[in-house]
Structure formats: C-alpha cells, structure tokens
C-alpha cells in the first residue's frame, strides 16, 4: 500500500532522509518514532505528495511520486486521511463545516450525502453536540478530535497522524490513542509519527525509529503496553 524505494530528501544542504526503503501493507499499523526535526513530518509529507523525494520513489497504492494532476490529487485525498500536528482547521468555519470540507475537496456537495456522513464522523469522535461551534470555542483535545473526524469522514483506507498527542494532558492523550486504535481495528491502515516513546508503545503494530535520516525497525519486548500503564 505504501512503499519507499531508496528515498533521499534534501532541503538545500540539509539531509532529511537518507536512502530510506520500507513498506507498509494494507490494514497495517506502524509508528515512526524520532526526536523533533528527525524527519518524521518529511516522511509523512512524501506519502501525501505534499513534497517530492530528491531521489528514489514513493508509492501509495497506484500513485507514484512525481507531479500529480488535479484529478489525481483529488483521488489521492480520498485514499489518505491526514491529521496534522497543527490541525489546520479553518478558524471562520464551524466544526461541521471543517469536517464537510474534506468531502467537498473529494467532489461531494449534495447535502443528502454530506450531512449524514459528517454527522456520523462527529458522533464517532464525540463532537456531534459541538458541530455548530468554531475551532476557537473548542479545547485543544476537541480540536484534535475535529481533525480526526475530518480525516476519517471519507472512510479512507489509510489514516496518517502527525504527533496526535502533542501538548495533550494524559487523559486526553489516552482518549486520542484509543480512538485512533479503534479506527485501525475497524480496517484502516494507521501510520503515526511521534517524538514520545510511551505513545509509540501504546499503539499496536511496528515501531520504526528515525535517526539521522535513516529508518530502522525497533524490537518490541513482550506484549504491547496497556495504555493505562503508559500514561
């Protein structure tokens, strides 16, 4: 489903990724663990085609790295739901409108289709009663939930979360991890980027450590930690 083949990414003289090769299969869960500025966000942006590799090839389903047409970008957006670290919610739109925007970008505008899908996504993240509020009226954790609803409203086969628990207190972080884990167990492939080892340990699946531009698989010891024990 996602494959990196000898991918290197440079920003001028700075080397962000160095000859990275790895793959993630359909329905899998994986966590990329690395310190701030280790290259996690670059790796995720390569998957969403927001940036292109300096050398090497990134494949996501049927899409390969390179310039995509507007039609292909719209198709890719239906394939991947992205939860950004800074949420990227529109401040002048309600919670409902922010989530509906993902459907509009995918070419869906008919209320009979859009309204029930947005309401379902908001119910899943516990925000349906907040649907008429603006982002500024939400807590930090509620904004994160709104971003998750927007990412899953299209029911994409892949969900990517960049630092989904950043700046959240323990109870909210646990709730977000549980929510993302449930989304994965319902069938979506889940890729999480984090700086926190305890967050990486709380998710099922592989942990990939990103250091100095290189990606290696970490060995888990024993069973996955219970979330309650991590926090």
Distance N terminus to C terminus? 32 Å
Query: Strand order of the main beta sheet, please?
Result: 6-7-8-3-9-10
Radius of gyration: 17 Å
Task: Please work out how many helical segments DSSP would assign.
Answer: 8
Question: What does the average pLDDT come to?
Answer: 91
Could you give a short account of the major beta sheet? 6 strands, mixed
Query: Which strand-content bin applies to the residues?
Result: 25-35%
Poorly predicted ranges: 225-231
Bin the helical content.
Answer: 25-40%
Class of secondary structure makeup: alpha/beta
The general outline is: globular
H-E order: EEEHEEHEHHHEHEHEEH
The count of DSSP E runs of length 2 or more, i.e. the number of strands, is: 10
Summarize the structure.
The protein is an alpha/beta fold and 231 residues long. It contains 8 helices and 10 strands.
Description:
This protein has 231 residues and is of the alpha/beta class. Helix content is 35%, strand content 26%. It is built from eight helices and ten strands. Strand 7, helix 6 and strand 8 form a beta-alpha-beta unit. It is globular.
């Amino acid at each position: 489903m996602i494959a990196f083949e000898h991918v290197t990414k440079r920003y001028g003289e700075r080397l962000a990724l160095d000859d990275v090769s790895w793959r993630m299969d359909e329905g899998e869960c994986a966590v990329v663990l690395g310190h701030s500025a280790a290259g996690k966000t670059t790796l995720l942006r390569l998957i969403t085609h927001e940036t292109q590799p300096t050398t090497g090839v990134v494949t996501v389903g049927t899409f390969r790295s390179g310039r995509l047409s507007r039609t292909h970008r719209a198709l890719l957006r239906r394939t991947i739901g992205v939860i950004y670290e800074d949420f990227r919610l529109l401040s002048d739109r309600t919670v409902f409108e922010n989530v509906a925007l993902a459907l509009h970008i995918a070419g869906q505008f008919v209320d009979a289709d859009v309204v029930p899908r947005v309401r379902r996504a908001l119910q899943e993240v516990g925000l349906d009663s907040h649907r008429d509020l603006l982002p500024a009226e939400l807590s930090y954790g509620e904004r994160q939930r709104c971003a998750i609803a927007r990412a899953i409203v299209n029911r994409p086969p892949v969900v990517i979360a960049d630092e989904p628990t950043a700046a959240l207190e323990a109870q909210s972080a646990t709730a977000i991890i549980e929510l993302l884990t449930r989304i994965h167990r319902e069938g979506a492939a889940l890729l999480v980027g984090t700086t926190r080892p305890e967050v990486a340990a709380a998710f099922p699946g592989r942990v990939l450590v990103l250091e100095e531009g290189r990606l290696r698989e970490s060995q888990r010891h024993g069973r996955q930690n219970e979330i309650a024990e991590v926090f």
